[in-house]
Design goal:
The complex is a heterotrimer of chains A (about 80), B (about 80) and C (about 160). With about 80 residues, chain B is mainly α. Helix content of chain B is about 75%, strand content about 0%. Chain B has three helices and no strands. In chain B, α1 packs antiparallel against α2 and α2 (about 30-50) packs antiparallel against α3. The radius of gyration of chain C is 15 Å and the shape is globular. The longest helix of chain C is centred in the middle third of the chain and has 33 residues, at about 65-100. In chain C, α1 (about 5-25) crosses α4 and α3 (about 50-60) packs across α7.
């Protein structure tokens, strides 16, 4: 019996791998951050899809908010500004 | 409702591959910003593995501490190591 | 009974329309909300891109906007139904405050997405299709071709402005 509940997991995994390849082959740092953001979306989806539990929802949200703050800090420091908290 | 992650082998291998690619890129890239991005890729591969093994509280801690560490590193060395 | 692929395509189109509409209503392509967004906008614009679209893509990366809100709302509804989506909306609101974000695109997007996804759930499209659909929608905007996506977003911005 084909388990169709795993198709979202596969999609998130393939998108994450594609985004990682784009991150590593991109020369400009700021455009790398955009592809990194795609990977963060896919990894957040993977975290929540793998364990359907309230705690994994918190783990996914913590990972996503942390990755957004980190990308913002890298981008604003790269541009010469003050890293936001 | 499954308790463990579906399709163990493929997703584990994919996430491990992402983590290894990230770690390798940290070594080979020159700019410190690219190194931080490589660390973020590595943690992006590692944190779902921690969640899937059941250590959700460890995953939450790591997911909060790793970006904080990156922000602190940028505050300590960011201004001096700008790369064109 | 529609298959999962059809569900995911419907979910991807819905979340694409939802998050771009909320972001444009909140004037995200106008200027950078946080300082990193403007830097990314200029970088995309300087390489055959367009500044307004690039600024919006920078805002998607650097602050919790409607795309983040929709994804986290989908995760919340998947885990715990409508209350889970509302919990995710509150957490996105806290994230908006942490980032000193002047707008509340993320919270509004999360709230609207919670209602939309719960509604679609009653019609038979499960919430995990929305998680995969949102990931695909973000891939099409930020993962394929930055200049093309920024021109598309600028054209949509001109309709609103």
């Amino acid at each position: 019996m084909e388990d169709t509940g795993m198709i979202p997991v596969y999609i998130c995994g393939i998108v994450a791998l594609y985004a990682v390849l784009r991150v590593l082959t991109e020369k400009q740092t700021l455009r790398k951050l955009v592809f990194l953001n795609v990977m963060n979306f896919a990894i957040t989806g993977l975290i929540v899809l793998s364990i359907p539990d309230i705690m994994s929802l918190f783990a996914g949200i913590a990972y996503f908010v942390g990755s957004t703050l980190e990308s913002n800090a890298i981008a604003s420091t790269y541009a010469g500004g003050v890293p936001n908290e | 409702m499954q308790e463990v992650c579906p399709m163990n082998e493929y997703i584990f291998a994919l996430l491990a591959l992402i983590a290894i690619l990230g770690a390798v890129s940290v070594y080979f890239k020159r700019s410190p910003f690219d190194k931080l991005i490589g660390l973020a890729v590595m943690m992006g591969g590692a944190i779902p593995l921690i969640v899937m093994k059941g250590y959700i509280d460890v995953a939450i801690l790591v997911a909060i501490i790793m970006p904080l560490t990156s922000i602190f590193i940028l505050q300590a060395t960011g201004r001096n190591s700008d790369d064109a | 009974m529609p298959s999962m692929f059809v569900n995911i395509i419907i979910a991807a189109l819905t979340s694409w329309i939802l998050f771009i509409t909320v972001d444009i209503i909140f004037r995200l392509p106008e200027k950078g909300g946080v300082s990193g967004a403007g830097a990314i906008g200029s970088a995309i614009a300087s390489d055959n891109g367009s500044l307004n679209g690039g600024t919006m893509m920078g805002n998607i990366v650097c602050s919790p906007d409607a795309s983040a809100g929709t994804l986290l709302a989908a995760c919340g509804v998947y885990v715990a139904g409508l209350p889970g989506g509302l919990v995710a909306t509150v957490l996105v609101f806290i994230g908006n405050r942490i980032c000193h974000d002047p707008g509340y695109a993320g919270t509004t997007g999360a709230f609207c997405a919670t209602l939309v996804i719960t509604g679609f759930g009653l019609m038979g499209i499960p919430a995990e299709a929305f998680i995969a659909g949102m990931v695909i929608a973000i891939l099409t905007i930020q993962g394929l071709s930055h200049p093309y996506a920024s021109h598309l977003l600028t054209k949509l911005w001109r309709i609103r402005a």
